[in-house]
């Protein structure tokens, strides 16, 4: 929503404008979006003049609290008021798209902040997220596969709640009775890398693997299209923010920069499910001073889970039976 509004403002920016040019996004709560002559976006929230607070200056982002501001409208008239202004000092389209998508989730839902204190708290949360994005390793192929599991589940919301909210978690999905690790490849074979303790954990943990083969295709979807489709299915505001935050951490700014269109290799051959105990692993004798064992294994010749077991795994529901 906000990025489309941003591009529309740029297309109609008046040549004689030397300040902010914008439109009201939500009249009921006083949310505005504006741009300046540098194509820097500003997000404005109507605020009380007496609600004073020290400004925030972060990398790329500045927040000015309860400032008198005039905004030029598309009809040439001006609208004035007291606003808290969140400004991105950057016009790179990919960074702007990420910035506005995060603001949309943080400020455009039902729980719109009415005080500068709550605005500041949310901005600092976003700043922490941006730091994690900058320092994260990127694996868009792996992320695409994990998102496909959420998108194809009977309940995307239930699947998103099972998604581990840390990019370094041992497993991708943790359900009540089992865990699911997702492996994604563009190769013709189902060759994946594993850690030994992923497939042979201590205790009675039931572990399953989803092997996804993807291919580039004009009819496929970019990763940000998949993210937006899932977001449209999530009704809980906190879940939406957590979901988008993890997507950003795992994908970084490349999440909205990559134009690679992917799709499963085929409806039947795209995703296969396996029980971890059916996957061969290297033999390490008990008590051996060996740890952190990682290895590659091809799953092509192994028996896939089918029937009810596959359906339950696809829906991340009760523990599938196998044997």
Distance between the first and last residues' Cα: 49 Å
Mean pLDDT figure: 88
Computed Rg: 24 Å
**Total helical elements:** 9
Structural class: alpha+beta
Spatial order of the strands forming the largest sheet = 1-2-3-6-5
Q: Into which percentage range does the β-strand content fall?
A: 25-35%
Shape: elongated
| Helical content band | 25-40%
Fold and architecture overview:
- The protein is α+β, with helices and mostly antiparallel strands and 323 residues long.
- It folds into two domains: 2-134, no CATH class; 140-314, no CATH class.
- It is 31% helix and 26% strand.
- It is built from nine helices and 13 strands.
- The strands form three sheets. A five-stranded mixed barrel has the order 1-2-3-6-5. Strands 7, 8, 10, 11 and 12 form a five-stranded mixed sheet that branches. Strands 9-13 form a two-stranded antiparallel sheet.
- β2 (31-35) and β3 (41-46) form a beta hairpin.
- It is elongated and about 75 Å long.
Descriptors for this entry?
single chain; 323 residues; alpha+beta; 2 domains; five-stranded mixed β-barrel; 9 helices; 13 strands; elongated
